[in-house]
Amino acid sequence: MPEQTREADVVVIGAGAVGENAAERTASGGLKTILVESELVGGECSYWACMPSKALLRPGTLLQAARSVQGAAQAVTGSLDTDAVLARRDSFTSNWDDSSQVKWVDGAGIELIRGTAALSGPREVTVTDDDGTQTRITARHAVVLATGSVPTVPRVDGLDAIDFWGTREATSAREVPESLLVLGGGVSGCELAQAYARLGTDVTLVARGDLLAKFPEPARRLVEAGLRRDGVRIRLRTASSRADAYDGGVTLTLTAAGADGETGTADTVTGAKLLVSSGRHPALSGLGLEGLGLDPKHLGVDASGRVPGVDGGWLYAVGDAAGKAQLTHQGKYQARTTGEAIAARAAGELDGDPEPWSRYASTADDAAVPSVVFTDPEVAFVGLTEAQARERGLSISTTELPIAVAGSSLYADGYQGWAQMVVDEERKVIVGMTLAGPGVGELLHAATIAVVGEVPLDRLWHAVPSYPTISEVWLRLLEKYGL
Ligand SMILES: Cc1cc2nc3c(=O)[nH]c(=O)nc-3n(C[C@H](O)[C@H](O)[C@H](O)COP(=O)(O)OP(=O)(O)OC[C@H]3O[C@@H](n4cnc5c(N)ncnc54)[C@H](O)[C@@H]3O)c2cc1C
Ligand SMILES: NC(=O)c1ccc[n+]([C@@H]2O[C@H](COP(=O)([O-])OP(=O)(O)OC[C@H]3O[C@@H](n4cnc5c(N)ncnc54)[C@H](O)[C@@H]3O)[C@@H](O)[C@H]2O)c1
């Protein structure tokens, strides 16, 4: 097999959004950086996840927003134009062409090598390209794993014989199926169920537990009602025991749990397509981690993204690969802190562990991760849930209320929303916030600032929300809390 050898200061494996950001930080820190990618530069988020899924959802959300305001509702009498929705989605994925991202990589002074990378020794990466040519790269300072995640396929009898969709196929589909079974009631399942329902697909969503199980119940119920309003049939607390090909489509055999938790009777549902959206796990197999004495199932990283147990501390992991939050923005944050930590260590400016909240530590990963579920209504969440806060031994109070302020009633006729604030009673600061309702995703950053900034409630009381915005829910929460 032909082989070349190269040297660099840093090798980043995986050019998703996260790998790109890590490479940009090490390159701008003066380190010669090689970025390796086996598929498209830009990764999952750009081509098969965030961007196409949000592009599929946005037209339906906008149409519903117009329909929920008298005066505008009369002007929108048609339905979504499916071809136009798909064409707009295609423009957001650049038709699955990564040339503009490659240009960005070049402009950032990063060298791109296409191929599949694996660790072949300490500080050594071997890249195999499509022709079988191998490039062995020695990394003087660091190797960063930014390899993302892969779908976790559930154990359902018969599934391996079915040509089912994963989220990649659902976000890149060229046609809208007549009917769709969605297996998994997490974020992807809920978002894609609604996107397809609004494009005219007859959707059945099967969840083994509740929808969006980690969120508080009133928020979940609002999303459930939104999906049902769009015609999605929802089967909660239902196990899928078997999948069979049926008349060009798929049949799932389901068993609902009885009210008393006992197994109920089995029935079947059918669909032209089956979307399996049952979670993802870090893409760490085949990377040669075992050869370094590491367990790819339990990598673990410190606050600077460094993998423990590696002599010389040259191995890092960021983004989905690191096994923390599977969110683009949080992965990019880790990439920034890790990239800066690598550059600082190489320059002798950082020794040992970084200080929490310094630019070399992703401290917010621990208790201040924001996320938005882009269903309609949306769920926006940051920090700790009530249960997580209690598990950490915090003495907390919760304040919750429906979102019913002048701004929300102007936003949509019959606006329905819900908000919850979790307060650490010892420090009198907000440690968690959930907002549910149309348009609340854009309110989340205020909550993130309050949590990260540990803003005392008696000071937060002076942050006056503009009238009449939905943000007045902050005032109502603080008043209900007792301020
Ligand atoms: C349907 C869906 C919707 C989502 N929506 C959102 C959203 O709205 N907001 C949000 O924040 N998050 C969202 N996410 C999560 C988000 O997509 C991920 O958190 C994000 O893509 C992770 O980025 P990453 O760079 O770590 O990994 P990836 O984007 O997966 O990039 C990893 C890259 O590494 C490459 N690679 C892997 N192994 C190798 C190897 N051995 N050699 C060379 N290259 C390799 C891969 O080809 C890939 O390009 C969504 C996920 C899904 C599935
Ligand atoms: N808006 C966003 O930020 C966004 C959107 C989509 C995905 N994502 C991220 O991508 C990741 C993957 O999304 P996802 O929805 O696949 O994962 P998820 O972990 O959010 O949900 C997976 C769901 O599948 C269910 N499940 C697992 N095994 C099952 C089985 N055998 N039968 C039935 N259900 C089963 C789980 O109970 C869970 O409800 C998530 O971590 C999420 O953070 C983010």
Automatic annotation (TrEMBL):
<comment type="similarity">
    <text>Belongs to the class-I pyridine nucleotide-disulfide oxidoreductase family.</text>
</comment>
<feature type="domain" description="FAD/NAD(P)-binding">
    <location>
        <begin position="9"/>
        <end position="334"/>
    </location>
</feature>
<dbReference type="InterPro" id="IPR016156">
    <property type="entry name" value="FAD/NAD-linked_Rdtase_dimer_sf"/>
</dbReference>
<dbReference type="InterPro" id="IPR036188">
    <property type="entry name" value="FAD/NAD-bd_sf"/>
</dbReference>
<feature type="domain" description="Pyridine nucleotide-disulphide oxidoreductase dimerisation">
    <location>
        <begin position="369"/>
        <end position="474"/>
    </location>
</feature>
<dbReference type="Pfam" id="PF07992">
    <property type="entry name" value="Pyr_redox_2"/>
</dbReference>
<dbReference type="Pfam" id="PF02852">
    <property type="entry name" value="Pyr_redox_dim"/>
</dbReference>
<keyword id="KW-0274">FAD</keyword>
<dbReference type="InterPro" id="IPR050151">
    <property type="entry name" value="Class-I_Pyr_Nuc-Dis_Oxidored"/>
</dbReference>
<dbReference type="InterPro" id="IPR004099">
    <property type="entry name" value="Pyr_nucl-diS_OxRdtase_dimer"/>
</dbReference>
<protein>
    <submittedName>
        <fullName>NAD(P)/FAD-dependent oxidoreductase</fullName>
    </submittedName>
</protein>
<dbReference type="InterPro" id="IPR001100">
    <property type="entry name" value="Pyr_nuc-diS_OxRdtase"/>
</dbReference>
<keyword id="KW-0520">NAD</keyword>
<keyword id="KW-0285">Flavoprotein</keyword>
<dbReference type="InterPro" id="IPR023753">
    <property type="entry name" value="FAD/NAD-binding_dom"/>
</dbReference>
